[in-house]
Write a structure and sequence with these properties.
The protein is mostly helical. Helix content is 69%, strand content 6%. It has a six-stranded mixed β-sheet, sandwiched between helices. α28 links the parallel β1 and β2. α10 runs antiparallel to α11, α13 packs parallel to α15 and α16 packs antiparallel against α17. The protein is rod-shaped, with a radius of gyration of 54 Å.
Length: 685
């Protein structure tokens, strides 16, 4: 053995290591060899000394020395006998086997290990080393047999599990190799094993992908990155799998990890795609903050993507971040100036800022790029309508409808501009068309309610407003004013019907046109007077319409004139302006001149109750005299809060119930039409 080591063609260091190994094997038997030598030397000394007795007397002259010498002699004899007759242990043979294994004398090594097993068949070390020997000889079946035997004796043998994992890896038995390495890691979390396991799990995941077993593939790839977080290929695979099953949040996380390890263009493209999908999904789910974060990150990954900037603009716009949305759309346009959709979006945010001329230019640019996008013409119609260009706006909406007649927003816009032109029946048809296309579009119901009110179909109008609130409860506070106005119109209609229903009434209508009635009050007052004129049956004896302001002038219509001249009278009312003082006393006197020779006298006063041609008491006294003479007095207060003299008007009326507070705003030009909102898709473009 010693000569084998010395003759082996191996390095000095390895020779020294094997020599130490050999000494460690034989150290327990050195004392036997030394004892044998000492015994031989003893016999030689006895021989030279002339006999045993002379030797003892010479060297062990005292009794004490003789006893010590006897003990030493017996120990030498026992050690010698032990060396001669004691069998070698399994550790001895395993040591020899290891030395032969290193000297690549595998036959001798195998014999030594098997000799150890003959002494102890359950010797796990010898079994494991026989497995190692099988691997070195490429006899994998034999190696597996010995590794498995060793593990049956002790399943905590790290090197046996590792050996099995190595063999299964060589044999491409991925699942078996993974199981073996997992068991090895339970015993010793050696980094080398983790790296091998990570690669095997990646291979297994790829196999599952080919079989379209994506859940299993994800589990395998996750195990791969858990064991080696630095394996960018596994992170890439994991991101692709998550994207494939639609879990783009996890896909983004995986791609981000992969890019940190390997910032390749391909990985950035995959990350970018998943970010866009997340942004779109969150936008559709109304999770605008997460959508914004996803699109913002997308612009960081690919700042030259016009699509990402446009998407980010959509989310900013949806959140009311108008300036940010404009910035994002302009970024998109700077990258791709030929994107019609980006120009449309820019027009939308400009219109939102009331920059209508700039918005019109943006829409015009979009039309030049793609004249067949209905949304462009809708946006153009919106800004034209906002500028009061109702004829041009109507053309834009009709163009949108010709491109796509199934967009409810086009019909709503058309209805709005038709209503602004007092073409209420045509507007009603447009709103009804919008409702048929999208019954949940709030603006359709609001517009319909407005035009129905303009046609004095008040009950239908209220139903339309109720439907608008059903579609969007947030509209209820906004619609309160106009709903109250419609309800008041219904009350006025009932009022005039009850006052004027009799056939032979003679009516004096007094309209305050003084400067205190300027603004909304004169508009409301005209509406009330016109309603009264329309409510008077044609068979009544006569109407006396008196305007009192800067001057007092009256128009009288006898029964024969009423039928043909009612519209002329309404036109006169509409052309009246508010100016001057409030000569209410003079107006009452003019009314009495008209009524005093007639029966069934009715006076209806529409005013804010702020006369200045006489003291209030004087006017009230005169009004009392008229009531005493049989005139039925009705007063309608126009204005809000302190704008009217309510106490005065109540006193001037015949009864408390003959006073009515009026706050009406149903003029077609000022009614709260909800213009079709600027184009915003349900999900980003």
């Amino acid at each position: 053995m010693l000569f084998d080591i010395l003759a082996a063609k191996i390095g000095f260091v390895k020779k020294a290591r094997l020599m130490l190994r050999l000494i460690s094997i034989y150290y327990m038997y050195v004392y036997g060899i030394v004892s044998l030598l000492l015994l031989a030397f003893l016999f030689y000394m006895v021989y030279l000394g002339g006999g045993l007795s002379q030797f003892i007397n010479y060297y062990f002259f005292s009794t004490y020395n003789k006893l010590v010498g006897l003990v030493v002699f017996l120990l030498i004899i026992i050690s010698m006998l032990k060396y001669i007759f004691d069998s070698k242990t399994e550790m001895f043979y395993e040591g020899l086997g290891d030395i032969y294994f290193d000297l690549i004398k595998k036959d001798y090594a195998e014999k030594a290990y098997k000799e150890s097993l003959m002494h102890n068949p359950n010797r796990e070390y010898a079994l494991r080393r026989l497995g190692d020997l099988g691997v070195s000889l490429s006899d994998y079946d034999l190696a597996i047999k010995y590794y498995q035997k060793s593990l049956k004796i002790n399943n905590k043998l790290f090197l046996s599990w590792k050996g099995l994992g190595d063999i299964y890896s060589i044999q491409s038995k991925t699942s078996g190799a993974i199981d073996a390495y997992v068991e090895a890691l339970k015993i010793n979390s050696l980094h080398e094993i983790k790296l091998k396991l990570a690669l095997l799990c990646k291979t297994e995941g790829e196999s599952y992908i080919n079989q379209q077993l994506y859940d299993k593939a994800i589990d395998s790839i996750k195990q791969s990155v858990e064991n080696n977080p630095s394996l960018d290929a596994s992170w890439t695979l994991l991101g692709g799998l998550y994207a494939l099953i639609g879990n783009h949040d996890l896909a983004v996380n995986a791609f981000e990890r992969a890019i940190k390890l390997n910032p390749s263009a391909l990985l950035k493209d995959k990350l970018f795609t998943s970010l866009l999908i997340i942004g779109q999904q969150c936008y559709g789910a109304r999770d605008l903050k997460r959508s914004e974060d996803a699109f913002q990150r997308a612009t960081e990954v690919n700042p030259q993507s016009a699509t990402a900037w446009a998407y980010l603009g959509d989310v900013s716009f949806k959140q009311g971040k108008i300036k940010e949305a404009e910035r994002d759309y302009r970024n998109a346009i700077s990258i791709d100036p030929n994107s019609a959709s980006s120009w449309i979006s820019l027009g939308n945010v400009l219109a939102q800022q009331n920059r209508f001329e700039a918005a019109e230019e943006a829409y015009q640019k979009a039309i030049s790029l793609d004249p067949n996008m209905a949304s462009t013409h809708i946006g153009m119609g919106n800004v034209l309508a906002q500028q009061g260009k109702f004829i041009e706006a109507e053309k834009a909406y009709r163009k949108a409808i010709s491109i796509n007649p199934n967009l409810a927003s086009s019909w709503v816009g058309l209805g709005n501009v038709l209503a602004q032109q007092n073409r209420f029946e045509a507007a009603e048809e447009a709103y009804q068309m919008a409702i048929s296309l999208n019954p949940n579009l709030t603006s359709s119901w609001i517009g319909l309610g407005n035009v129905l009110a303009q046609q004095q179909r008040y009950h239908e109008s209220l139903k339309a407003f109720d439907k608008a609130i059903e579609c969007d409860a947030n509209e209820e506070p906004k619609l309160k004013v106009i709903r109250d106005s419609v309800n008041l119109r219904i009350q006025l209609e009932n009022l005039f019907s009850s006052i004027l229903i009799e056939e032979k009434n003679n009516v004096a209508l007094l309209l305050d046109t003084s400067s205190s009635m300027q603004g909304q009050k004169i508009s409301d007052a005209k509406e009330v007077i016109i309603k009264a004129v329309r409510s008077i049956p044609t068979k009544h004896n006569a109407i006396n319409l008196i305007f009192f302001g800067a001057s007092i002038y009256a128009y009288s219509l006898e029964p024969n004139d009423l039928l043909k001249s009612r519209d002329d009278l309404i036109n006169r009312i509409n052309q009246t302006d508010a100016d001057g003082n409030t000569p209410l006393l003079g107006a009452l006197k003019r009314a009495w001149e008209f009524l005093k020779s007639r029966e069934n006298r009715i006076i209806i006063i529409v005013t804010d109750g702020m006369p200045n041609d006489a003291l209030p008491d004087v006017i009230l006294d005169y009004a009392k005299s008229l009531k005493d003479a049989g005139c039925k007095m009705n007063s309608l207060g126009i204005g809000k809060g302190t704008e009217i003299n309510e106490d005065f008007l109540r006193k001037i009326a015949s009864r408390k119930e003959d006073f009515h507070f009026v706050d009406v705003d149903l003029n077609s030009k000022s009614a709260p039409y909800v213009y079709v909102s600027v184009y915003q898709p349900e999900s980003p473009k």
